[in-house]
Write a sequence for this structure.
């Protein structure tokens, strides 16, 4: 399970325990955005609009996250930070 999936699951669980509409879809997505790596967030934020469902957005985020992980972007970024 990726970090994005874990965060989304925690948000869904938390949201389900509150009164209905306590956490709007846009607030849910903003919390998800804050949990993302900056590279992933730069891809997702311009793509996302209020017409997207949370489930379709999470699926897209997970695909993009897998692509970044698979191409080694996160590892390259971690190496850059360790050399600074």
């Amino acid at each position: 399970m990726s970090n994005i999936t874990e965060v989304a699951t925690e948000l869904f669980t938390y949201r389900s325990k509150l009164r209905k509409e306590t956490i709007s879809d846009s607030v849910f997505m903003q919390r998800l955005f804050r949990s993302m790596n900056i590279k992933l967030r730069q891809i997702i934020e311009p793509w996302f609009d209020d017409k997207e469902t949370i489930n379709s957005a999470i699926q897209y985020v997970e695909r993009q996250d897998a692509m970044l992980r698979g191409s080694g972007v996160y590892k390259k970024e971690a190496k850059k930070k360790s050399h600074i």
Notes: The chain is about 75% helix and 0% strand.
